[in-house]
Amino acid sequence: MKCFRDLVQSIVPTIAVVAAFLSAKDVRGESARTLPAPSPSHPGNVFLEEEDVIVPLPNGVWQVLDADDRVIASVEAAEETARLGQLPVGYYRLRQQESPEEWVSLAVLRRLGVPTPETSPVAVDVAMSWFYPVEKMPDVAGLCALAGVNWVRDRLAWREIEPQRGVFAENTRYDAAAEAQSAAGLKVLQVNHSSPDWANPDHRRFPLDLRDCFNFHRHIAARWAGKVTAFEPWNEADIPGFGGHTGAEMASLQKAAYWGIKAGNPDAVACLNVFALHNRAQLEEIRTNETWPYFETFNLHHYAAFDAYPSLYADFREVSAGRPLWVTECAMPLRWSGDDAKKELSDEDLKEQARRLPKVFAGSLHEGSRATFYFLLPHYVEGPTQFGIIRPDLTPRPAYVALAAVGRLLADARPIGRVKHDRYRLYAFHAMPDGKERVVLIAWSDQGAGPYSLPETPQESYDHLGRTLPPAKDVELTGSPQYFLFPKQPYAAIDLALPPPSPETRSEPPCPVVFQTVWPESATDLSQSAYRIPAEGADIPLYVYHFGSGTASGSLTVDTPNGWTAEVSTHAEVPAGERLERRLRLSPPREASASVQTIRVSGDFGHLGKAVLAFRVVTEEAGK
Hints:
Blueprint: H1 5-11, H2 15-22, E1 46-48, E2 53-56, E3 60-65, E4 71-77, E5 81-85, E6 90-96, E7 99-109, E8 122-125, H3 128-131, H4 137-146, E9 151-153, H5 158-161, H6 173-183, E10 187-191, H7 210-223, E11 230-232, H8 247-264, E12 269-270, H9 280-288, E13 298-302, H10 309-318, E14 325-330, E15 334-335, H11 347-366, E16 369-374, E17 381-382, E18 385-386, H12 398-409, E19 414-419, E20 424-431, E21 438-445, E22 450-453, E23 460-463, E24 468-469, E25 474-477, E26 482-486, E27 496-497, E28 513-517, E29 524-525, E30 530-533, E31 538-546, E32 551-559, E33 565-567, E34 571-575, E35 579-587, E36 597-604, E37 610-619, H13 620-623
Helix pairs in contact: 4-6, 7-8, 8-9, 11-12
């Protein structure tokens, strides 16, 4: 599971409104963007078709190889420049015969016919603020735009923005990244990873006082209004590397962050603080805490095998309350090999990475994702695994070219269904390649090459790198995905397995009163998303926050399992922006069950609504 743990440790010792926002520009193929154009210096050696390819190279004779490692030309670099003329769409490498292990890469992309639709689901995790110096940020943002990417994901360390409570730094790398990416016409999702020391001495864990979370998100949502469109309040809080929080703790943080984001910028998208794992206990707590009014997209990560997608997505979809699914990290990654200093993929794995990328998008979009962020654009290694699709000098790996094919051919893609077939994988989408309404079929074989007869001859055909193929009705499917474009749906309904339906959308209003309990991490049984409680019971701090206006006045009730007792002061009166502490005394029965039990705290605050906190407990003896 990819979670940026090592990198982080090096850096930090109403639904109607949502629907209106997400569909505000849902006119197929139209966009307020302009067409991206490459920088004259062509960062990363990325060119558009019909441009002259001029690459900086040490003097000498170089062989030009295409994506299939065929030598297509030899060129001599003079004055440390090689002029290759115009090349077809594709991925290329240049090698010297004397040192074939050393190579320089370049890409030729097809020029986008229209700007990328602002509702396109094609996205990539860029981690701009952490990976690139300010002077490189416009170049990297340009590479994303040229590839037809709609959304990019950045990374944030809270303490750099707010080094002291209420004191905010100016002109940070995060401001530069927001400016560079938004200037390139990209939509930006920002995610926080940690608490500053003043908010929690253990920076992996949530702030002890949720008012700090509210104030921080209010600040950054206002600060980057018009530049950062969406916010994930925390990255992968469900795993130990980022705090190891229960679903109940994630729900409380989410509620505070939601109110902060909306106070800073009502138009910003408040995303769910994203899950790393597929732990049903944690997912269930998101539901029992009635968290759905406080997130506008349901966010998850996965690095699962392709066949696991249906069951994985089904479990997340079940607790999404009908909110759009956003997959903000996903890949089927590969291990690097060879030179320890380079940590590069082998030649075969470079090709395999490019083959896997469109499969990830096809599977994710079929399962209902409305934004799929491939992990990762930059060169990034964790242990034996290389995730990046561009190299440290910004030059491409083949997977970057595959991303550009996805960005163009699956622009604004919406799933139609999976073609029923015992051997091949075929997924159909309504999409807008180059601004034209098309049915796009993406197809491949996981069981060796074999023939397949399409229902009719497509108008256009492309390989997984976006290279044009001769349109034909009878084709050979291999492990490399191919795209087939049709003017209308060519399959009969009986030939298709429909995409999974979205659950019913729940639309209750959020309550500005938020509950929180604070437990030591040592008392957490993360696998069960539960707290271990001594047989003699425990006094638990229960906080009541008010993130609205005026004074919140209401009553508390506690529902316990059979045999359990709870004692708490039931009246709560909280001024706006304050929190009230209550002590909740919990006592299990003498013969405690070994099973996990749920404690539910409810608050009725009249016109402000009802607040809920549901958490799971297990007695220490039973849990041993």
